[in-house]
UniProtKB/TrEMBL annotation:
Name by which UniProt lists this protein: Metallopeptidase family protein
Pfam family, one: Zincin_1
Transmembrane segments annotated in the record for this chain: none
Organism encoding this protein: Terrabacter carboxydivorans
Xref: InterPro entries: Zincin_1, Zincin_1_sf
Domain of life: Bacteria
Length: 113
């Protein structure tokens, strides 16, 4: 397990989001990305909760933002170096953003995320 300072980890998440193609960032809608520093649900590095863009209809209004949570403790627990943490954060952010766009786990695994 690698120990990463909470502020540094949050910066890694921000940089992973900034590294997404601009077109994707412009399409993301009503979603908040947060970091949980405590251990999250067993086996999860990240979690998307909400209504994917592909399932939203014209009646989608007045709802709380979707939420992407990245679990710092879990990510650090599966990594052996700071470099691995940066890469795992990037992969986890991309995976959860993929869910926001309606991409399922099987397809994300096929894509390497």
């Amino acid at each position: 397990m690698v120990e990463v300072d909470p502020e540094q980890f949050e910066l890694m998440v921000s940089e992973a989001l900034d590294g997404l193609p601009a077109e994707l960032g412009e399409l993301m809608s009503n979603v908040a990305v947060t970091v949980q520093h405590d251990p999250g649900p067993a086996g999860l590095l990240g979690l998307y909760r909400g209504v994917p863009l592909t399932r939203r209809s014209s009646s989608y209004a007045g709802v709380l933002p979707d939420r992407i949570t990245i679990y710092r403790y879990a990510v650090c627990a599966v990594c052996d170096s700071d470099t691995e943490v940066v890469e795992q954060v990037r992969r986890t952010v991309i995976h959860e953003v993929g869910h926001h766009f309606g991409i399922g786990d099987a397809r994300l695994r096929e894509l390497g995320y």
